[in-house]
Amino acid sequence: MYRLILTASLFLFFARSSYAQDWTNTEIRKANTAAAANYLTEEEKGVILYMNLIRLDGQKFYYTFLEDYIDKYNASVRQYRNYNELKISKNNSYYTSLLKHLQGIKNLPLFYPDDKLTALSRGHAVDLNRNNLESHESSNGDKFSKRLSKYFPNKSMSENIDFGYSKSLDIVCHLLLDCGVPSLGHRFNIIDQKYKLNIVGVSIQPHPSYNYCTVIDFVAQPIFYTNSR
C-alpha cells in the first residue's frame, strides 16, 4: 500500500516539472515523508515533499523547481500592463538573497506530518475562510502559539500562512521567496535549523478574498519522536 501511495504522489507532483530528472528516486522517496498520511490531500502532501527537497539540497531546489515556478509565474503575469513591476527578475533582491541562504542547506533533518497538528492547521484555515481573515490570530483573538500549545505545550513552534495558491509547488516557492516580507520569516521556517522544527500540519482551504489560503504549522518534538502514521 505504501508503495502505491508513494508512486501516485510522485507522478502527480513531478510530472508537472521539466526538472524532475535532476532529482534521484532516492531523494524523492526520502523527501516524501507524508506519502501514507491519509488525512492530507495530495497537494498538502506535496507541500511537505517540496519543503523536504529544499532541506535535502537547497541549492539544487533553487536551480530546478524554483526556477520552474518563476518562469511560470512570469508567464502568467505577462498579460498585465504593470508586468515589469509584477515579474520576478534575476536581480530581485529576494531572489538573490535566497541563493545565499540555500547554498549551505544540505541534508537537514526532514519534516514529518502529524495528524493532531494538521487538525489545528485545518481549524485555523477554515476560520480564516469563514471570517475572511488574513492573520495568525484566530477570529476569537487567540495567537497561533496559544492554539498549538494546547496540544504541544512547552515546544518550539512557528506558523506559515500563504494566500492565493492551491498548488503545492506554488505555495512552497511563494513562501520560500518571501517577497515583500523583510524578516523572511516564512523562508527561515522552511530551512529552520535553530529551533529543530520537525513535525508539520498542513491545510489548504478556500478563501473569499484570495481564492485559497494555506496554513502550515511547525513544532519541534524531542529527537526520539517517531511518526508511525
From TrEMBL:
<dbReference type="Pfam" id="PF00188">
    <property type="entry name" value="CAP"/>
</dbReference>
<protein>
    <submittedName>
        <fullName>CAP domain-containing protein</fullName>
    </submittedName>
</protein>
<dbReference type="InterPro" id="IPR014044">
    <property type="entry name" value="CAP_dom"/>
</dbReference>
<dbReference type="InterPro" id="IPR035940">
    <property type="entry name" value="CAP_sf"/>
</dbReference>
<feature type="signal peptide">
    <location>
        <begin position="1"/>
        <end position="20"/>
    </location>
</feature>
<keyword id="KW-0732">Signal</keyword>
<feature type="domain" description="SCP">
    <location>
        <begin position="106"/>
        <end position="215"/>
    </location>
</feature>
